[in-house]
Amino acid sequence: MRLALLTDLHANREAVEACLAHAEGQRVDQYAFTGDFVGYGADPAWVVQTVMDYVGRGAVAVQGNHDYSVTRPVRPQMHAEAREVIEWTRSQLDSDQMGFLAELPLTRKHGNAFFVHASAWEPIRWEYVTGVEEAERSLKASRSRIVFSGHVHAPALYRRADDGRMGSHVPQAGRRIALQPQHQYLVLPGAVGQPRDQNNAACYAVFDDEDRSITYFRVPYDHGAAARKVIAAGLPIVFAMRLVEGI
């Protein structure tokens, strides 16, 4: 089975459409969405409905911190721009879409695979996995051979060898990476809707469980149109600039 891995869609219709179209060309059999379907972008209703439709056809989906926040009282420590987007997003979603986000699980396990938005170690803490220490903590907590997550908005791959040694790898777009069966892996596909690695092309990955490989992709999309829609919606301009600059 070939599994498309999409995370941090962030209400960016243009990026999501581009990645889904690209995935169809990769002979993908199924999809997994690891959270943050709302926040920052101008099309939360369309993105949430799209994920709902894919879940209805068997896709995996877990809850991200933005999905969690939009269905609960706003935390006082949240900065003003984030609160503004959350409150606006609530006004854009219907009751079915809000219910879908609220009921999403924090984690899903399927066979040897574990799906989580942030870290498998206390998922509700929304820890950023930015190095081998956090990656090892997530892998140990999952007890699964492979963990798929997101949250950091940049593509990365971590490995925990059978002797416990940790390693990391910066994946190259379009290059197949073979995964060894005796090791554990943490796969971060990068963000579909808001990349933050100085590259404004959308990110996603495809896992092939038959030949045990992972391939990361960068998909150019009309980020200018997405940015203009953010501004037209009256959302903070910084979220539009991020799409253009990839930061």
From TrEMBL:
> What residues does the Calcineurin-like phosphoesterase domain cover?
1-209
- One matching Pfam family, short form? Metallophos_2
**CDD domains attached here?**
MPP_superfamily
The UniProt similarity line reads: Belongs to the metallophosphoesterase superfamily. YfcE family.
- Protein name listed in UniProt: Metallophosphoesterase family protein
In which organism is this protein found?
Answer: Massilia aerilata
